[in-house]
Amino acid sequence: MQGDFFGMREQDSAAHLKDGEEAVIGAWRVRNFGGYHQSSEQGGRWRFYVTGFGRIVAGEHVECSLLRIDGTTETVPIDAAGCITVMGRRYGAESWAH
Residue ranges of the domains in the chain? Predict the structure, then answer.
């Protein structure tokens, strides 16, 4: 049975969402943010999903992989402070989950 959450119908997948569109999957709100998958638990902060961490330079990770809305991943920079850069904008560690 599909429910209603914040006026949106519950979905099974976010892959069909166009840029800016949102859906509900279980207890999570999800959206397409410029082709990237973002989620928000029960109305909390929107977060990117980091699927893994890549290259290490001088003992620090310098890149990570973000989940895209179509299920693929994309490598983006991450700095020593844990900030990721997405579409030219820097986001702090509170804006992503792993």
Answer: 4-93
Q: How far apart are CA 29 and CA 80, in angstroms?
A: 29
Q: What is the pLDDT of residues 32-87, one digit of tens each?
A: 999 999 999 878 999 999 999 998 888 888 999 999 999 999 999 999 999 999 99
* Residue 95 per-residue DSSP state: G
Q: Is 80 exposed, middle or buried (0-12, 13-18, 19+ CB in 10 A)?
A: exposed
pTM above 0.70, yes or no: yes
Cα separation, 86 vs 50, in Å, equals: 12
Q: Computed from CA positions of residues 26, 24, 36, 33, in that sequence, does the dihedral angle turn out positive or negative? A: negative
For residue 36 the two structure tokens come to 């990237």
- Rounded Cα–Cα distance for residues 14 and 65 (Å): 18
pLDDT at 62 (0 to 100): 94
